[in-house]
């Protein structure tokens, strides 16, 4: 079964860090541009970060530049999002997407 499965979400205090993972099953992650989105309560889903298929181009939403890092481990067929200095406004459900698939999301809650 082809799917993306996120993990690594949780509850942290402001200023803390989390590393999200997105494991691919039945898909070859290295062939695809990959994306991290988030959806805050009551808001639309927004693109947080992306990386192209050969890892030469990355994108970060303005508020996370210098704080979040997207990466992938092709041997593990897994995409990551390292998040540092988290703020309460980073709270939301984080989704990975790529290869025409979406994961189910993982909740990130940042408290003050």
Q: How would you describe the overall organization of this protein?
A:
There is one protein chain. By secondary structure, the chain is an all-beta fold. The protein is 0% helix and 53% strand. It is built from no helices and 11 strands. The strands form 2 sheets. Strands 2, 4, 5, 6, 9, 10 and 11 form a 7-stranded mixed beta sheet that branches. A 4-stranded antiparallel beta sheet has the order 1-3-8-7, with no helix packed on it. A hairpin with a 6-residue loop joins strand 5 (46-51) and strand 6. The protein is globular and about 40 Å long. It starts with a strand and ends with a strand.
What best-fitting shape do the alpha-carbon axes yield? globular
Q: Terminal Cα separation, in Å?
A: 40 Å
Q: What's the mean pLDDT score?
A: 97
Order of helices and strands: EEEEEEEEEEE
Beta strand %: over 45%
Poorly predicted regions are: none
How would you summarize this macromolecular structure in one to three sentences?
The protein is an all-beta fold.
Element layout with pairings:
Elements: E1 3-7, E2 10-13, E3 18-25, E4 34-39, E5 46-51, E6 58-60, E7 68-73, E8 78-83, E9 92-98, E10 101-102, E11 106-111
Parallel strand pairs: 2-11
Antiparallel strand pairs: 1-3, 3-8, 4-5, 4-9, 5-6, 7-8, 9-10, 9-11
């Amino acid at each position: 079964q082809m799917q993306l499965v996120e993990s690594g979400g949780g509850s942290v205090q402001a200023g803390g860090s989390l590393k999200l993972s997105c494991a691919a099953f039945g898909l070859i992650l290295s062939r695809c541009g990959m994306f991290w989105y988030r959806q805050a309560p009551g808001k639309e889903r927004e693109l947080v970060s992306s990386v192209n298929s050969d890892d030469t181009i990355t994108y970060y939403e303005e508020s996370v530049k210098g704080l979040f890092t997207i990466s992938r481990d092709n041997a593990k067929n897994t995409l990551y999002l390292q998040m540092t200095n988290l703020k309460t406004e980073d709270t939301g459900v984080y989704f990975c997407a790529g290869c025409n698939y979406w994961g189910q999301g993982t909740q990130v809650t940042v408290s003050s």
